[in-house]
Amino acid sequence: MTDPIRLIVGLGNPGPEYETTRHNAGFWLADQLAGDLRTSFAFEKSFFGEVAKTRKDGENVLLLKPATYMNRSGQAVGALARFYKLAPEQVLVLHDELDLLPGQVKLKQGGGHAGHNGLKDIQAALGSPNFWRIRIGIGHPRTLNLAQQVADFVLHPPRREEQPAIDAVLDRCRAVVPAMLSGDFALATRQLHANNPA
Fold first, then answer.
1. Which residues are catalytic?
2. DSSP helix/strand/coil, 59
3. Has 84 been labeled as part of a binding site?
4. pLDDT given at position 113
5. Domain extent at residue 106
6. 103 — alpha (psi -120 to 50), left (phi > 0) or beta?
7. CA-CA-CA-CA dihedral for 175, 110, 24, 103, to nearest 10
8. Is there a domain that residue 106 lies in?
9. How much is the pLDDT for 56?
């Protein structure tokens, strides 16, 4: 059995103006998971973000939404991981993914950051790329035939026809998180990837 997940980090930008934007897909999922785990977020200044706490098998399980803006996400993740003495392998990061279409999702451990500023900063803060990621597909302006620049695209809400596919992915992610909290990543990966549209 691998180390179970003990810190779940949703990535996004704080503030009402960003709430519905594609870049906040990680926040959306973190909020839903807090509901599933019957806990709620409270701002904690020393951890630079909103933190929700619960217990699993007698151990702390933490959820985090950094309040630092995307490109400084590592500040909050690093502070929390150090305080609770968590290894990178016990951290799960939820984030939007340009390389996957709406309706697609991937679970992976380690790897690069593909230019995602939040991931880049977390990797630097943890000193390792070996944390887990749930990559929530939002599509890319090119693959969706949009003329928008990427930076503009991620800071806009999904189009009406894309939102149901993204919502369905969030539900699928919620269903596999219990397996990850128990350290069964093979089961979580199998379940999550089984329903990916081609």
1. 23
2. strand
3. no
4. 84
5. 7-194
6. left
7. -50
8. yes
9. 87
Tell me, yes or no, if the pTM score tops 0.90: yes
DSSP H helices, the chain, are: 25-36, 73-83, 117-126, 150-154, 163-181, 185-194
Angle at 167 between CA 164 and CA 172, to 5 degrees: 125
Percent of the chain exceeding pLDDT 70 equals 99
Q: Would residue 156 count as lying in a domain? A: yes
Task: Look at the chain and report how many structural domains it folds into.
Answer: 1
- CA-CA distances (angstroms) from residue 43 to 48, 84, 107, 112, 123? 8, 17, 28, 30, 23
What are the tens digits of pLDDT across the range 96-154?
Answer: 999 999 999 999 999 988 888 899 999 999 999 999 999 999 999 999 999 999 999 99
CA 38 to centroid of chain Cα atoms: 18
